[in-house]
Amino acid sequence: MKEILSPSEIAEFTVEVGVNKANMKWWKQFILGIMAGLFISLAGNAASVAGYGVSGVGTGKMVSGALFGTGLIMVLLAGAELFTGNCLVSMAVLQRKVKAVSMLRNWILVYMGNLAGGVLYTFLMGQTTQMSMDGGAMGAYAINSAYSKCTMNFIPAFVMGIFCNLLVCIAVWVSYSSKNVVGKIAAMYFPIWIFVTSGYEHCVANMYYIPMGIFAKLNDTAVDAAYTIYGLDADKLSQVNWSNFFITNLIPVTLGNIVGGVILVGAVYWLVYLKKDKKVEDDIKTN
C-alpha cells in the first residue's frame, strides 16, 4: 500500500476534500467551525502562556510557535472546519466540481463558527484568574498582543496575512501526502511553526488573540502590568476594542489569507497539476 501521495495525487485528493466540505450540511459546517475556533484558541492560549515571559521577541515567538501548531493538528485529525484551510476548496471550484456560491457559503459558515468558538473561549478565560497570573504579566502580554494587532496599517496586515495562509495551506497540503497519523503531524507541524515564529497574521488565530486582550482589559491587575511592562497608557488601551478588531485587523488579514491560500497555493497547484491543456484534449479527441 502506497504511504505517500505525489503532488499530483495530493491535488486530486484536495479537490475531493473540497467537494465534501462544500456539500456538508450547513449546521455541520458551522458547528465544526466552532470546534476549529476552539482548537486554535486552546493552542493560542498555551502558546501565550509558554511565550509571554521569554526574553527576546524572536525566541518568544519561536517558543510560542512550538505549541501553536497543535491547533491545526487537532483541526485536521479530530475533524473541524478552519476558514483558512478551507481556502483550498477553491481548487474544487477551479476543477468545476463545486460551484463558487457553495464555496462562499462554506467560507461564511465556517468563518462565523471560527469567530464564535474564539470569542466564546476568550470570554470564558476572562472569567478565570489566568490574566492575573505572574502579577498580571500574562494579562499584560495578551493586551499588548491585541494592541499591536489593532494598530496595524492595512497593507502590512494584508501582506502578513498572505504569507500566513501560504504556510497554513501548505501545511494542510503536505499533511494530505501521508496516510498515517505520525506522517501527517510531522508534515503539517513545521510550516505552522514558521508562520508563528515569523509573526504572520492569521485571521482565526486573531479571533483568540484580540478578544483575549479585550477581555484582559477588564482585569485591573493586567491593566496595571500592561502600563508597567509595555507602557500602555489609557489612550493606547482604548485602541484595543471590537471596532479595531473587526475593521483594522480582521478585514485586511482575512483578505490576505484568501490571497495566500486561494492564489499562491490553490490556483498554483491547480494550474500545474490539474488544468487540462486544451490542445492535448483536442488531439486526444481527434485520435
Word description of this protein:
With 287 residues, this protein is mostly helical. 78% of the residues lie in helices and 0% in strands.
What layout of secondary structure does this protein have?
Elements: H1 7-23, H2 26-51, H3 57-79, H4 90-94, H5 100-125, H6 133-150, H7 154-175, H8 181-198, H9 203-216, H10 220-230, H11 234-237, H12 242-273, H13 278-286
Helix pairs in contact: 1-5, 1-12, 2-3, 2-5, 2-9, 3-8, 5-9, 6-9, 6-10, 7-8, 7-12, 9-12
Describe this structure in a few short sentences.
The chain is mainly α and 287 residues long.
> Cα-atom Rg, whole angstroms?
20 Å
Q: Using the 3D structure, state the CATH architecture.
A: Up-down Bundle
Top CATH class: Mainly Alpha
Beta strands, count: 0
The general outline is: elongated
- Tally of helical segments: 13
Low-confidence stretches: none
The share of residues in helices is over 70%
Class inferred from helices and paired strands:
mainly alpha
List keywords for this structure.
single chain, 287 residues, mainly alpha, Glycerol uptake facilitator protein, 13 helices, 0% strand, elongated
